[in-house]
Design brief:
Number of domains: 1
Distance between the termini: 42 Å
Number of helices: 13
CATH class: Alpha Beta
Helix content: 25-40%
CATH topology: Alkaline Phosphatase, subunit A
Oligomer: single chain
Order of helices and strands: HHEHEEHEHHEEHHHHHEHEEEEEEEHEE
C-alpha cells in the first residue's frame, strides 16, 4: 500500500470510527484517532510542552511592553512605564508582577505581519499559514484548513495515553459566536482536534466535560462499554461490519481510558488548588484558566492554549479588541481594570510556579495576540488594528530570559531591527521542541506543505 492509499484508508475509517463512536456516546474518540501516525521516537529537544496565552483581539504594544514615554500623549497615552528587574527595560505600571519577573522572559518588540483582519491574523498565529479562502466575520473552521500547531504536536509527539495531547481552555476564540478558523485539527482530522473544556474555571459550576467523574456511569458500566467495543472489533475482523483499518479496539479503548482516568480528572480539577494559589492567579476566567493550564502541563499535556475570553455582546466584552467605540469603555480605562491586572497575575503566577517546580526550562510559554494596536488613538479614545508592529512575550523552554529582542521606531509603528513574523515564532517553537519545521504534512488533496516556512529566531535562544 502506498502513502496515498494509506491516507485514503485513514480518512474513510475515521468517518466510520466517528460514526460508531457517536452511536456509542464516545465523544472523546475523535480526539485520539490518529495519534499513532508518527512512529518515530520523539526527537531530542529543549522544550517538551507549550503554553500559548492568546490575548484575543490584539494587545496594545504601546500600553504594555513597548511604551514610548517621550512621544506626545496622543500616542503614548497616560500609562507610565516602570523599571523591571532587567536594567534598562521598562514595561507598563499596571503590570508590576511582570516587571519583577522580567529576568525570566523575553520581550519581542518587533513582531510584524501585513494582515489586519482578525480571522486571517488569528489563523496565521495559530497555524503558521495564510488563510487563502474568502472569509467574513461569521466564517468558521473548515476541515480543508491547516491544523493548529497543537494538532500537529498531537500527531508528531508521544503523550500519556490517559491525557489529551492538546487542550484549549476555556473556549474557542469566537467573539461573534462562531469559532474562528485555525483552532482545530483541520485537514489532519478530528482525531487531532483539541480537548475543549468549554467551561469557566472561575465559576462554581465549572466542569471540564467528559473527563469529569459522571455520577451515573459506574466502573461496571464503563467496563461494559469496553466489552461492547471489543465485540464490535470482533465483528469487524470477521467481515460482518466494515473495519476500515481495523483499529476500533485500540482507539476506542484509549478513549475509554481517558474518560475513566483519575489522572485526567485530577489534572482538570482547579478546585484542588489551595485558595491562596487561586487568588494569586486571579479570580478571573483568564487567571483560573491559566491555573488549569499549569496543572495540565504537569500532567503531560503537550500544548495548552488559554484564550482571553471576549464576546462582542457578551462575556468578556471587547477583550483586547479595544477600539473604545460606545457603548464599550474607553481603551485605557478598560485596559487598566479588565485587561492588564488579570494578564499580569496569570502570566506571573504561571512563570513562578513552573520555575519553582523545575518545569520552566522544559515548558515554552508564548503570550501574544493576532496583532497590536495603532500608535495613535482614534476619535473614541481607543486604538485600532495594527499588524505592522507589535509585541509578544516568550519564556522557558530554551528561551533566554531577561532580554528585549528587536526594536520599534519612536511611535511603535514599524520595526527598526530584527522583525519577527508569527511564522518565524512558530518555526522557533518547533525548533525548541526538536521538530523539523520543514517536515511535510499533506492535506485532503494530497498537497504537501511545511509545518512552518519561517526562520528560527536564534537571538531568543
Amino acid at each position: 500500500m502506498n502513502a496515498t492509499q494509506g491516507k485514503s484508508v485513514v480518512l474513510r475509517s475515521r468517518r466510520s470510527f466517528l460514526h460508531a463512536g457517536s452511536a456509542l456516546g464516545l465523544s472523546l474518540s475523535g480526539l485520539l484517532r490518529l495519534r499513532d501516525g508518527y512512529a518515530g521516537a520523539p526527537p531530542k529537544s529543549k522544550a517538551g510542552s507549550v503554553v500559548i496565552l492568546y490575548l484575543s483581539g490584539g494587545p496594545s504594544q504601546l500600553d504594555m511592553w513597548d511604551m514610548k514615554p517621550e512621544a506626545p500623549e496622543a500616542i503614548r497615552g497616560t500609562f507610565r512605564p516602570i523599571d523591571t528587574s532587567v536594567p534598562g527595560t521598562q514595561i507598563c505600571e499596571h503590570m508590576p508582577r511582570m516587571a519583577r519577573l522580567a529576568v525570566k522572559y523575553a520581550i519581542i518588540r518587533s513582531m510584524s505581519h501585513s494582515d489586519g483582519d482578525h480571522l486571517k491574523a488569528t489563523y496565521l498565529a495559530m497555524t503558521a499559514g495564510v488563510l487563502s479562502r474568502p472569509v467574513i466575520q461569521a466564517s468558521g473552521m473548515q476541515r480543508s484548513d491547516r491544523p493548529h500547531v497543537g494538532s500537529v504536536l498531537s500527531q508528531v509527539l508521544e503523550s500519556p495515553a490517559a491525557i489529551p495531547p492538546f487542550v484549549m481552555v476555556p473556549e474557542f476564540v469566537s467573539p461573534v459566536g462562531v469559532p474562528r478558523p485555525g483552532q482545530y485539527g483541520g485537514f489532519l482530522g478530528a482525531a487531532h482536534d483539541p480537548y475543549l473544556i468549554n467551561s469557566d474555571p472561575n465559576l462554581p459550576d465549572y466542569s471540564p466535560g467528559a473527563v469529569s467523574p459522571v455520577a451515573d456511569v459506574s466502573r461496571q458500566r464503563l467496563d461494559g462499554r469496553r466489552s461492547l467495543l471489543a465485540r464490535i472489533d470482533r465483528l469487524a475482523a470477521s467481515g460482518v461490519i466494515s473495519a476500515g483499518d481495523g483499529s476500533y479496539d485500540r482507539y476506542c479503548s484509549r478513549a475509554m481510558d481517558l474518560i475513566a482516568s483519575s489522572a485526567a480528572q485530577q489534572a482538570f480539577d482547579v478546585r484542588a488548588e489551595p485558595d491562596d494559589v487561586r487568588d494569586r492567579y486571579g479570580r478571573h476566567v483568564f487567571g483560573q484558566s491559566v491555573l488549569v493550564a499549569r496543572r495540565l502541563i504537569e500532567a503531560g499535556v503537550r500544548l495548552v492554549q488559554v484564550n482571553f475570553v471576549r464576546h462582542d455582546r457578551g462575556k468578556g466584552g471587547q477583550g483586547y479588541d479595544s477600539h473604545g467605540v460606545p457603548p464599550s469603555p474607553p481603551h485605557l480605562a478598560w485596559a487598566k481594570s479588565e485587561l492588564l491586572p488579570p494578564t499580569d497575575a496569570a502570566f506571573s503566577s504561571l512563570v513562578e510556579d513552573l520555575s519553582q517546580r523545575g518545569l520552566l526550562d522544559e515548558t515554552l510559554i508564548i503570550m501574544l495576540g493576532e496583532f497590536g494596536r495603532t500608535p495613535r488613538f482614534n476619535a473614541h479614545g481607543g486604538r485600532d488594528h495594527w499588524p505592522q508592529c507589535y509585541s509578544a512575550v516568550v519564556a522557558g523552554g530554551g528561551v533566554q530570559g531577561g532580554q528585549v529582542y528587536g526594536a520599534s521606531d519612536k511611535i511603535a509603528a514599524s520595526p527598526t531591527s530584527n522583525p519577527v513574523s508569527p511564522i518565524d515564532l512558530l518555526t522557533t517553537m518547533y525548533h525548541l521542541l526538536g521538530i523539523d519545521a520543514g517536515r511535510l504534512m499533506y492535506d485532503q488533496e494530497n498537497r504537501p506543505s511545511m509545518l512552518a516556512d519561517g526562520r528560527v529566531v536564534h537571538g531568543l535562544l
